[in-house]
């Protein structure tokens, strides 16, 4: 057997760096390992013994791109354990914070990470040289998200103002006025962004996905809801452990999430859109229709359009909340801990993020379980890669690696803390 | 060095990744010891944050952790970054090199950019700064504090 190891550089333009190993023999892929996001495992251990008030701050450090998602899922899990529910203007502020993060994260992916694939550039930087105005638009849109997060969370990155039960302090109407002004401009850019990305040339792909996302009776679910799937399943967040399990698969060393025993379901923008698009605000629904999105989206390359639609929705909804905002009477609702288990889930930019905490009799965390979206999508990504690589094993390794990177970027995975280089190993006999 | 009228000192890093916090720690040490005209910023090292952080500055000094194979705590002084360089030593994927590329493409570079790299050894999640890196952090902060008076 000849063994060939080819280093093709880092897995560029995904959040962080990753590694992919493909083993092939006699023209067949015999093994595959996509090394991705494991830090939550470490944080689960770190949380044990800490106070029940600490998970929002501690888990926010798991991801530099989506700290709000970790804070919101953590807060809701602890609040469920304590028997409280944040509602009214405090919930609206949490929505605002979350919309800000969606705008930040999606815009970065659209403009600097994903669009270069469609326009033939090797990076967002290379694209910026030829499309300065376009990239400036993207940066202005992202900045609107940063400012929204800073206005509610205290800082644009790693917000410090969130606590179990609400916030440490709440903004005044006057403080939100300049944020609204920037958001109005951002909304226009977001609308143009949908039109722009809809004009890209998309490979004709149609996957038979099983989607999973939160569903909320009153809104395009982002902050809370119950679980819905494209197979018609519906269950409360508390029932997550009974439906979602992790198991080993033959061709990969990573644990793969299973939904009711079935491997390879998908969370994220395509899942949210396909399950909940009727609940998008009118302008986002119209933009989606004009962009040619149907009732669902099963082409991962077109996920860039869905992200753009979600950015428009986030701008629109954030503006409406600010317009009707009245300061809550208190920045947080009081609570007392209970020695029980709480579950929480929210829609991180990359998909459903589930947290579970068991609070001990002394108020400390006895057990923590965090299931991030990228780990859930890992099996589906590997399936895509398998189908992509096997018929193309004859291609030069660098060409194959570039194709793999593009396929992975479609899912905007967060692999911040994984290995530093993409090593595409091809074992050929 | 003489301190230009608009100077910013920017620390990059992830406070939860051991020695990756070196740049942040330099900035934290410097606070309170710099003239009021010198701004300080802490960032994750994201390219879009960086070009905002140095917007309008005559002089921007960036301190980041690197991993080049040198001994932990080694200070790489005044790294010359040019557009298109891959600053692979940084643990941030769309980081300093991309910020320089993006800044140049968009005409958003500071008048002068000076980069200090502090060689890290342990980037484990939750780890504290290692002893040699902490020593280097103090060294760089001391140098900058004296230079920027």
From TrEMBL, chain A:
Cofactor(s) needed, names only, are: Ni(2+); Fe cation
Q: Which SUPFAM superfamilies match?
A: HydB/Nqo4-like
Q: Which PROSITE patterns match?
A: NI_HGENASE_L_2 (PS00508)
Q: Where does Mg(2+) bind?
A: 44, 370, 420
Superkingdom of the source?
A: Bacteria
**Where Fe cation is bound, by residue?**
66, 417
List ligand-binding residues for Ni(2+): 63, 66, 414
What's a single GO MF annotation on this record? nickel cation binding
Can the keyword Nucleotidyltransferase be found in this entry's annotation? Answer: no
Q: Which UniProt keywords apply?
A: Iron, Magnesium, Metal-binding, Nickel, Oxidoreductase
Protein family membership: Belongs to the [NiFe]/[NiFeSe] hydrogenase large subunit family.
Put simply, this protein is called Ni/Fe hydrogenase subunit alpha
Q: Which organism is it from?
A: Planotetraspora phitsanulokensis
Q: Which taxonomic lineage is given here?
A: Bacteria, Bacillati, Actinomycetota, Actinomycetes, Streptosporangiales
């Amino acid at each position: 057997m000849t063994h060939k190891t080819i280093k093709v550089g880092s897995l560029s333009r995904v959040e962080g760096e990753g590694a992919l190993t493909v083993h092939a023999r006699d023209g067949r892929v015999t093994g595959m390992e996509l090394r991705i996001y494991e830090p939550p495992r470490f944080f689960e251990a770190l949380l044990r013994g800490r106070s029940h008030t600490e998970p929002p701050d501690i888990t926010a450090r798991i991801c530099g791109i989506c700290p709000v998602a970790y804070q919101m899922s953590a807060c809701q899990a602890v609040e469920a354990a304590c028997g409280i529910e944040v509602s009214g203007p405090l919930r609206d502020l949490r929505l605002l914070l979350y919309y800000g993060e969606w705008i930040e994260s999606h815009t970065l992916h659209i403009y600097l990470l994903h669009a270069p694939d469609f326009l033939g550039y090797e990076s967002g930087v290379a694209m910026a040289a030829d499309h300065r105005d376009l990239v400036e638009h993207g940066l202005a849109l992202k900045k609107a998200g940063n400012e929204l997060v800073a206005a509610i969370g205290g800082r644009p990155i790693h917000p410090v103002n969130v606590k179990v039960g609400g916030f440490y302090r709440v903004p005044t109407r006057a403080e939100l006025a300049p944020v609204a002004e920037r958001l109005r401009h951002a909304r226009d850019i977001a609308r143009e962004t949908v039109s722009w990305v809809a004009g890209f040339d998309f490979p004709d792909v149609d996957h038979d996905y099983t989607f999973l996302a939160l569903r909320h009776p009153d809104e395009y679910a982002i902050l809370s809801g119950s679980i819905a799937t494209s197979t018609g399943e519906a269950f409360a967040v508390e029932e997550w452990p009974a439906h979602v399990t992790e198991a080993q698969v033959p061709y990969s060393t990573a644990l793969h999430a299973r939904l009711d025993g079935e491997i390879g379901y998908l969370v994220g923008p395509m899942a949210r859109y396909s399950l909940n698009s009727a609940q998008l605000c009118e302008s986002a629904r119209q933009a989606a229709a004009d962009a040619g999105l149907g009732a669902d989206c099963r082409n991962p390359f077109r996920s860039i359009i869905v992200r753009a639609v979600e950015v428009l929705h986030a701008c629109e909804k954030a503006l409406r909340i600010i317009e009707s905002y009245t300061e809550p009477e208190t920045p947080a609702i009081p609570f007392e801990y209970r020695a029980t288990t709480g579950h929480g889930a929210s829609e991180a930019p990359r998909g459903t993020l589930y947290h579970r905490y068991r609070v001990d009799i002394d108020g400390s965390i006895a057990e923590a379980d965090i299931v991030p979206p990228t780990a859930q999508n890992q099996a589906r990504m590997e399936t895509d890669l398998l189908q992509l690589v096997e018929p193309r094993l004859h291609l030069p390794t660098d060409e194959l690696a570039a194709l793999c990177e593009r396929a992975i970027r479609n899912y905007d995975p967060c692999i911040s803390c994984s290995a530093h280089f993409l090593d595409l190993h091809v074992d050929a006999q | 060095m003489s301190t230009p009228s608009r100077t910013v000192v920017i620390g990059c890093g992830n406070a939860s990744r051991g020695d990756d916090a070196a740049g942040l720690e330099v900035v934290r040490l410097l606070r309170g010891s710099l003239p009021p005209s010198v701004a300080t910023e802490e960032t994750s090292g994201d390219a879009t944050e960086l070009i905002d952080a140095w917007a309008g500055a005559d002089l921007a000094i960036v301190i980041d952790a690197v991993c080049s194979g040198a001994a932990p705590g080694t200070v790489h002084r005044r790294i010359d970054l040019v557009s298109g360089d891959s600053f692979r030593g940084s643990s941030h994927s769309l980081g300093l090199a991309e910020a320089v590329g993006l800044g140049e493409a968009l005409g958003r570079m500071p008048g002068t950019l000076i980069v200090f790299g502090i060689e890290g050894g342990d980037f484990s999640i939750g780890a504290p700064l290692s002893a040699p890196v902490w020593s280097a952090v103090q060294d760089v902060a001391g140098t900058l504090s004296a230079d920027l008076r």
